[in-house]
Design goal:
5 helices, alpha/beta, about 230 residues
Length: about 230
């Protein structure tokens, strides 16, 4: 079960969980982006897919939803069991760089010293190591992903990563450019490509990563339906 503590590298979990993820031979990552105020669908996705995943990654524009998820997990043990043991997240162009919580999530985070008790720090970028693969996580607006992946490619090369996870465009895609892979899970509420809302599950093996895109029917209802996007 996840520990709701923000570490000095801005991940949420424990050092032990993060180190375990670095060496885990078979890992599953639940990747969402651009929820834009629809906490209900984020919670539904976590209830359905969170227990079978090793990390939850949020690529921005919906920090209020992430905060509500953390608040719910803090008070609801059954829901907390649905949250993967490591959370990585970043700030979108519509998100603040900090967010207040009712519990002291940063009590062991030296970066939170001087901030109000309960402050969640929202980073612009994050690096997550999974099974010896480094993932570069960003929203994408600072890298101009609407226009090209050139700057994003430079960033992941400089950061010694091989996979970039990003949002912002609201378009689900996976693209390979040389030794780099770019993955956008799309928007779980507001897609812009004529498809359904969705998200991604990434399987990380020793020598490769595999991405499954999941589409959502009735994303704003009490009974969303999840199917693999073909």
């Amino acid at each position: 079960m996840i520990e709701l503590l923000q570490l000095e590298n801005n991940l949420i979990g424990t050092h032990e969980a993060a180190r375990s993820l670095e060496k885990k031979e078979h890992a599953r990552l639940l990747v969402l982006s651009d929820s834009h105020g629809n906490y209900r669908i984020m919670a539904s996705i976590l209830k359905n897919y969170g227990p079978s995943c090793d990390a939850f990654i949020f690529c921005g524009d919906g920090i209020t939803d992430l905060a509500e998820m953390l608040e719910t997990a803090d008070t609801n043990p059954d829901f907390k069991k649905c949250i993967p043991p490591v959370i990585a997240f970043v700030r979108g162009n519509g998100d603040p760089d900090t967010f207040p919580l009712s519990f002291d999530i940063g009590k062991h985070n030296p970066n939170a010293k001087g901030l109000l008790k309960g402050t969640l720090i929202v980073p612009n970028r994050q690096i997550l190591c999974v099974n010896n693969t480094n993932f570069y996580i960003t929203h994408g607006h600072n890298e101009g992903v609407y226009y090209s992946k050139d700057l994003l490619g430079m960033q992941i090369k400089y950061s010694e990563c091989s996979v970039a996870l990003f949002g912002h465009t609201h378009i689900a895609q996976e693209e390979i450019d040389g030794s780099f892979k770019f993955i956008n899970p799309g928007s779980c509420t507001r897609p812009r490509d004529g498809k359904k809302p969705g998200f991604a599950i990434i399987t990380v093996e020793k020598d490769f990563t595999d991405t499954a895109f999941i589409k959502i029917e009735n994303a704003f209802s009490d009974n969303p339906v999840f199917t693999i996007q073909k």
